[in-house]
Amino acid sequence: xxxxxxxxxxxxxxxxxxxxxxxxxxxxxxxxxxxxxxxxxxxxxxxxxxxxxxxxxxxxxxxxxxxxxxxxxxxxx
Length: 77
Fold this sequence. Notes:
By secondary structure, the chain is α+β, with helices and mostly antiparallel strands. The protein contains one helix and four strands. It has one helix spanning 53-61; strands at 10-12, 32-36, 42-46, 65-68.
């Protein structure tokens, strides 16, 4: 089996505005972000219309949301 090592540099999100497209003022649909879990692990997620803004804001306040330094966008349908 072939394996690939992936490395992504991330930073702690400081504002929900980092998840908004500056040109349109709307959410960056498909934006990949990471959420720190209670056990210390990370889970990859992607921003959608259904993503709860208040949960994101709380995660940012608690320093549990990380954004890739280089934006990654997931395919959405």
